[in-house]
Write a structure and sequence with these properties.
Helix content is about 45%, strand content about 15%. It is an alpha/beta fold.
Length: about 210
């Protein structure tokens, strides 16, 4: 598979959406689909879809379209869903628990290997089969297990210190739900950050509702 040297962030961000739509098509019993039909379902142009796929060598056959299962497998391989990257979750409060219980890490290429919290009363409590450990054991765990991704569900005031500890332990990727922008304080060229500001998302929705043209 010939992969382009430069792939835009917008193309990368569409890959999980392709993967999700193809999974839904597979569940519907659809085995092949044309670029026109895929574009209609996803509200993208056929040209955009072809451009995205061409970044990875192109898929499908002229006049046939795409084999749904094959395309899903190819995109899954590009994303790396089979690699099961070791992931730890920091903060077992309401949000952290909800993510640990309801989010399917393995289908997204990750394996939840550890959960940490400062609350002594939570120690050894299990969430989704993973025992909660004290934050004092974080560095020892990282040295032994070498997790690559950290999910942050912690208060803003403790985020900088926790991030510094994790980066010093070799963690280089963050799924960050804390109200704190990691890439403002640390070298963003050295780490990968996906900031999830749910408040920003809701404010955007509120703006669009309030400014909807009738």
């Amino acid at each position: 598979m010939a992969v382009k040297d430069y792939i835009s962030n917008s193309t990368i961000r569409r890959l999980p959406r392709y993967y999700r739509f193809l999974d839904e098509l597979k569940k519907e019993g659809i085995y092949k689909i044309s670029s026109a039909e895929l574009s209609r379902r996803m509200k993208l142009t056929s040209s955009q879809i072809r451009q995205d796929f061409n970044c990875y060598g192109g898929f499908g056959q002229q006049g046939y379209g795409y084999n749904v299962e094959d395309l899903r497998r190819e995109i899954g391989a590009i994303i790396g869903v089979e690699k099961k990257i070791k992931t730890i979750l920091i903060g077992a409060g309401n949000l952290g628990r909800a993510i640990a219980v309801n989010f399917d890490f393995e289908s997204s290429g990750c394996k939840l290997a550890g959960i940490f919290d400062v609350d002594l009363n939570l120690e050894n409590t299990q969430i989704s089969g993973v025992a909660i450990k004290q934050m004092t054991k974080l560095e020892e765990f990282c040295r032994a297990e070498n997790p690559e991704i950290a999910v942050l569900c912690i208060p803003e005031e403790s985020a900088a210190e926790v991030c510094e500890t994790l980066i010093n332990c070799g963690v280089r990727a963050f799924w960050n739900f804390a109200h704190y922008d990691i890439n403002l304080d640390f070298d963003s060229n050295d780490i990968i950050v996906e900031n999830v500001h749910m408040g920003d998302s809701l404010l955007t929705l509120a703006y669009n509702v309030n400014n909807k043209k009738t």
